[in-house]
Design goal:
Layout lengths: L5 H40 L2 H34 L2 H35 L1 H4 L1 H30 L4 E3 L5 E3 L2 H5 L4 H30 L4 H35 L1 H8 L11 E8 L4 E8 L2 H7 L20 H30 L7 H9 L3 H17 L2 E3 L3 E2 L9 H31 L29 H4 L1
Antiparallel strand pairs: 1-2, 3-4, 5-6
Length: about 475
């Protein structure tokens, strides 16, 4: 099909479904924590603006969370349909990690999600805040286990191989806390918070461009810009440390990311742009800064750097995809830093809510977090090729024994269904965001509040008289 074999089509199908899936956890992880902060501020200050914003973003969170769950289930089925050999070989290691995610994170999230969505008037504000906090913690625990499993595939540790050729755990602590896991967990959680701050900031900016005096958009925009200002430099630092870890454990990935086809004995340049040519084994039209690559990666401008010329050609990753995906991620990261610094300048000038230039830039940067997350995922996964378990299990040896037409037809079905279903979901989310939060904003539950015996509403919580 289209000149692609079954393995290529299976990879394309997983990449397609993963691209749709990853944007929703990135948003729901950040939104869950944001909702917990909003409710805590409401309980602490009694200001109605915080509970109005909580109810506003709670509806958006519910849709994004549901879409993330559904798209994640679809992905897991592919392990059995398209990657059965991989599932058989690594199942004793990956299977328990994914099961722990369900038993700890998903059960925690689903157990408290109903209370979070519909229980404010039923259980009281403080118990409801506990439910919100548990959902936020659940999303972080989910990220913990999923990233542990994926990081083990990047930097396998603590394993043994049994007589059947399966990878089994020899030390679960080494499996879970494998060499790249701490760096990737921090990098992903910060990415989720940045993504959420940009979405919240874009929504706030959109409404401030229409009316600068709306209380809800003013508060959400200020909070979002504080988050972007604080987290963007932390993310750049975390990314640098992650890169040093990748150099130590996956040097070939770094070679592809940096476009280093040739080795450099007296210091490697930092290539800003260029056209990677896999066939010729060179970076055409390269624009670089001499010795800066060695300075960044080895903290010495004259440090030697090995290139892809030291690696067998069959073990090269797809350099053009990895090279450009990495630059998209890094470029957007510095744009986020610039937005945060510009907002800090406008805040100092007292023009945070009046600067139309800042608002337009924040609106344009709204999707940047999602694009950066997708680009980062592409960098990570294509840079690992041609292995599913780095250095141990080739991708071509991991696929199910399927014919290309079978995989291609399922891929085509996914494309059609996803673009219909998820387009409708995303349009509905945008419709919710297009309406500003109002005083007395209702949450997912539209029933009038009733006082629970023995519980006094917190300051700012609507009473029975106000509700009626």
């Amino acid at each position: 099909m289209f000149g692609l074999d079954a393995v290529d089509l299976a990879r394309a199908q997983f990449a397609f479904t993963m691209t749709f899936h990853i944007v929703f956890p990135a948003l729901s992880i950040g939104l869950a924590s944001y909702l917990a902060v909003l409710e805590a501020l409401w309980l602490w200050s009694g200001r109605d603006v915080f509970i109005n914003l909580f109810n506003y973003w709670l509806k958006i969170f519910a849709i994004a969370f549901g879409m993330g769950v559904v798209s994640g289930i679809v992905m897991s089925y592919q392990f059995g349909t398209n990657w059965s050999v991989f599932s058989d070989r690594v199942g004793p290691v990956i299977g328990p990690l994914m099961a722990y995610e369900v038993l700890t994170a998903f059960f925690l999230e689903s157990g408290f999600l109903g209370v979070m969505l519909f229980g404010l008037e039923r259980v009281g504000p403080r118990l409801h805040f506990l439910a919100t906090l548990m959902v936020a913690i659940g999303t972080l625990i989910s990220a913990f286990w999923i990233l542990s499993a994926n990081s083990w595939m990047q930097t396998p540790a603590g394993y043994a191989v049994n007589a059947d050729g399966q990878f089994v755990s020899a030390d679960w602590l080494q499996v879970i806390f494998n060499p790249s896991f701490p760096y990737r967990l921090v990098h992903m959680v910060l990415a989720a918070y940045l993504t959420t701050s940009l979405v919240v900031g874009a929504v706030g900016a959109y409404h401030l461009l229409r009316d600068q005096h709306l209380a809800g958009p003013r508060v959400m925009f200020s909070m979002a810009m504080w988050m972007a200002t604080l987290v963007a430099p932390l993310q750049i630092l975390a990314g640098d440390q992650h890169g040093l870890n990748t150099l130590a454990h996956q040097p070939v990935k770094i070679m592809a990311m940096e476009g280093h086809f040739e080795s450099h004995q007296d210091g490697a340049p930092l290539y800003l742009f260029g056209l990677p040519d896999m066939a010729a084994g060179r970076l055409r039209y390269a624009v670089g800064i001499p010795k800066l690559g060695s300075l960044i990666l080895k903290h010495a401008p004259d440090a030697p750097m090995a290139g892809l010329d030291t690696v067998p050609r069959q073990d090269w990753p797809p350099v053009p995809i990895t090279f450009w995906a990495f630059r998209i991620m890094v470029g957007l990261g510095f744009l986020m830093l610039g937005l945060g610094l510009f907002s800090l300048w406008e805040r100092w000038r007292g023009r945070l809510h009046q600067s139309r230039l800042l608002h337009r830039l924040a609106l344009l940067m709204g999707p940047a977090g999602f694009i950066a997350v997708i680009a980062g995922w592409i960098t990570t996964e294509t840079g690992r090729q041609p292995f599913t378990v780095y250095g141990l299990l080739h991708t071509t040896d991991s696929a199910s024994p399927l014919a290309a037409p079978a995989v291609g037809s399922s891929l085509l079905s996914f494309v059609i269904v996803y673009f219909i279903v998820y387009a409708a979901g995303i349009l509905y989310l945008l419709r919710l965001m297009a309406a500003p939060p109002h005083p007395g904003e209702e949450g997912p539950s539209s029933e009038p509040p009733t006082r629970t015996a023995g519980i006094t509403p917190a300051p700012g919580m609507p009473s029975e008289a106000a509700a009626s």
